[in-house]
Design a protein that fits this description.
- With 242 residues, this protein is an alpha/beta fold.
- The protein folds into two domains: 130 residues, Rossmann fold; 91 residues, DNA polymerase, domain 1, CATH 1.10.150.
- Helix content is 43%, strand content 13%.
- The strands form two sheets. A six-stranded parallel β-sheet has the order 5-4-1-6-7-8, sandwiched between helices. A two-stranded antiparallel sheet has the order 2-3.
- Helix 1 runs antiparallel to helix 5.
């Protein structure tokens, strides 16, 4: 932990990032890409695909670019086309796939399924404890409309008061407007809310721009940062004054 962590007793609403914070792809993006590609005649190395995916994702600034491009709520057709373009770029170096459309359809549906994701072990215990304490819980994530089905399928929905997906609301982190919408949904003031996520830029600086306290979740414990930091969600329960 890099900086003193806040007392959470006066926090009424907790906002969380989704991917990398509450759940993760399983077994990995690269392995899923390679598995589905193999069924469509393309043999590829999962680790290479993982690297290519993250490089392409960062190049396009992830789903934040979809929200900025539309400037408003995106439809499922726009979301699908955005992903089709990104996946096509990832696989462009492997040559022409005989039926890319069939491959992409299967891949897109795969990531819409909760079977492609796993909750971190500390996710449900924390949400259950916060809900027991009567807190308002929400997700604020740079994601598309598939997030709602995933939260339902992964068993998160019963604990959540709302879910904000950037492609649906039209604003992406670190834009403070998505955090302001979270405050509106939670009906709390900025000082009564806390956001937790695994991106310094999107989660910490974005939340602070909206006047919200933030905690950086560094699950691998390998990043140096002068902000309040935890390595697991379970540490949050120790920040309450009983």
């Amino acid at each position: 932990m890099k900086q003193s962590l806040p007392d959470l007793s006066e926090i009424k609403a907790f906002f969380f990032d989704a991917g990398g914070t509450l759940f993760r792809p399983y077994p990995s993006v690269g392995e899923i890409y390679a598995e589905v590609a193999r069924r469509h005649g393309v043999t590829s190395d999962p680790q290479e695909l993982e690297t290519l995916f993250h490089r392409t994702w960062e190049k396009h600034d992830g789903l934040a670019s979809l929200a900025r491009r539309s400037g408003q709520r995106s439809g499922q057709k726009e979301e699908r086309e955005w992903w089709r373009s990104l996946v096509g770029e990832v696989f462009s170096q492997f040559g022409r796939m005989e039926n890319f459309e069939a491959f992409f359809d299967e891949l897109y549906d795969r990531f819409a399924s909760p079977g492609a994701w796993r909750l971190f072990d500390d996710t449900l215990p924390l949400l259950q404890e916060l809900k027991r304490r009567g807190r308002i819980l929400g997700i604020v994530s740079n994601w598309d409309s598939r997030l709602f089905g995933l939260c339902e399928g992964l068993g998160l929905s019963p604990y959540l008061d709302f879910i904000l997906a950037s492609a649906v609301v039209g604003f992406a982190k670190p834009n403070p407007r998505i955090f302001q919408e979270a405050l509106r949904r939670a009906r709390v003031r900025p000082e009564e809310a806390l956001h937790v996520g695994d991106s310094l830029e999107d989660d910490v600086w974005g939340a602070r721009e909206a006047g919200i306290q933030a905690i950086f979740l560094d699950r691998k414990g390998n990043r140096s940062s002068q902000v309040p930091t935890i390595s697991a969600l379970q540490f949050l329960t120790g920040l309450f004054e009983n």
